[in-house]
Amino acid sequence: MPEDCANPLLAEWLKEWMDDAKERSSKAYTIYKKAYQSMKACPLRFDHPSEAQQLNGLGPKLCDRLTDKLKDFCDQNGLPMPEKGRKRRRTSDAALPDPARPDQESPARRVRKSQPYVPKLRSGAYALILALGTLDRETNQAIPKNDLMALAQPHCDSSFYAPSDPTKFHTAWKSMQTLENKELVCTKGHPTKKYYLSDEGWEVAVRMKATIEGRPLQPPSPKGKKRAAPRERSPSRDVSLEPATSRPASIRQPQASQRTASESLRIVDLLSDDEQNGRGSEPELLDPVSRRSRTEVQPVSAHVSSEDTIFLPSGSFEVKMVLDMREVRTTTDRDYISAELKKLGVVPVIRSLPLGDVLWVAHVNSGYVETLKAANVGDDEEGNVEIVLEHILERKRLDDLIGSIKDGRFHEQKFRLHKSGIKNVTYLVEEYSLSAERSDKYGEALESAIASMQVVNTFFVKQTSKLDDTIRYLARMTNTLKSLYEKQDIHVIPSRKFEDEAVALTLDRLRRTAPGKTYGMTFSAFGAMCDKSESMTLRDVYLKMLMCTRGVTGDKAIEIQKIWPTPRALAEAFEARQNGPEKDNMISDRLGNTIPRKKVAKALSAKIAEIWG
């Protein structure tokens, strides 16, 4: 037993039960293990086992069993049984009976001063108090629930209308119960209930407003009684909160604005240094008239004359966010994400995406559509030309990420994202409630996958705690990309240029040749490259065939393809070897000196030989 364990007796009994359950292969082993770890890590001494219910993994039944065990221990050693319900003493004082320590009297307790209630910034309680604080205190004004929710929503990060997690049922309105229990909010009226602040609630609202406006805080007045119910009167429809842009930056701005700024910097960091330093500029500056009239095809550089692109000047397009139509909150609430984005000032384009969940396009103005059509760039069915920009986002909830790792979709998606040629890939991982057993089982796999995306694949990984945070991040990213790209010129690559080689190779060579420029392809070309199997080369089909074998990642498939360039070459290599270890170990022996993530183990080599040999 660790020496620093505050409750050695309780921890010892839990360990005995845990070991016994493990020997019997009982399902209770997981329960006892969780309770034992919580007890061992707890720094507080308990006067009675019932106090251990505050720990994770210890419920009423397990605490009752510990109480019975403690009674037997006290009877056997002639010790008094601790009384239930006494307040916990400090860690340095004796708590549960210990034969090695004499009984000690508890020291005199200090009377703790009650602290004034402070709601969490941008929480439901914070928003409700601010909303009710805009009412007229002198006339005892009260408003119904629907009006109050509409006033409070701009001040809250969570929704008052839908749960942030599909597995939960409570919205931000749940905070009203806390405010009523603390006697900060009172109600009146029947059957329509109306809400207003008590005297204590007004004190909290005044302190919050003083903090927002940067005024010195006044000491709280002594705790008083609830205000009498106000006289009946109709709520004023003219009552409204200040807009978010006009609020002073004292409470919200130190965290919210800094968070926004930091996220914006991260997004900017996704671009190369040349693009940041030379944003919106070209090596040869032109006057606005000549820039807007310049629509002829121009070479990217003098060294790559064959790679002609179409010049699209700044101001001739608008940056828009495209959201995959399969990105929904639940099957019964399919419009939640798009509706919340519209509230934040971002109107997404909803359509089916061949790759990724969110990407950003430059929607070309009508004056340049005919020019791009004449250059054989291609357009969509409605006649609109959209240029895919250099950012794409893949969103995964934790449960979906675990499923993709198990069935192999995770590596296949990463391979397709690399092959798309889009420069900046953001992999967004959204928290989701998992069972303790599943979290323990796949925790290391999740950490390894996230680290691999950052280090090996050079993806930018963003982690959010809930769907509402994801939506706010998408809105901030969209606004940042609009400010970046709408000041730049875009060089559009005609679709015919992708016929001779892969998209990723073409874009990579262009970016290395002229790194200060922004390149893009039409959305129709992007869809054809990512979605249509007939546009794939033999090499692409061969790699996908290899990756159909469980355990063969994109990196391993590429290494195999370098040695045996065609399916026929691989099949003939197997035929030339005798059955047994020579055939089974052919690939693993040949790739034995590659870097670890590209090696093929003997078991995987035998599996490939069984399929191809």
TrEMBL record:
EC number: 3.1.22.-
Xref: CDD domains: WH_MUS81, XPF_nuclease_Mus81
Major subcellular site: nucleus
Cofactor(s) this protein cannot do without: Mg(2+)
Positions of the UniProt region annotated as Disordered: 74-116, 213-300
Family: Belongs to the XPF family.
Subunit structure: Interacts with EME1.
Biased composition (Basic and acidic residues): 229-240
Biased composition (Polar residues): 252-263
Function as written in the Swiss-Prot or TrEMBL entry: Interacts with EME1 to form a DNA structure-specific endonuclease with substrate preference for branched DNA structures with a 5'-end at the branch nick. Typical substrates include 3'-flap structures, D-loops, replication forks and nicked Holliday junctions. May be required in mitosis for the processing of stalled or collapsed replication fork intermediates. May be required in meiosis for the repair of meiosis-specific double strand breaks subsequent to single-end invasion (SEI).
Protein name from the UniProt record: Crossover junction endonuclease MUS81
Domain (ERCC4): residue spans on this chain: 320-433
GO cellular component, one term: Holliday junction resolvase complex
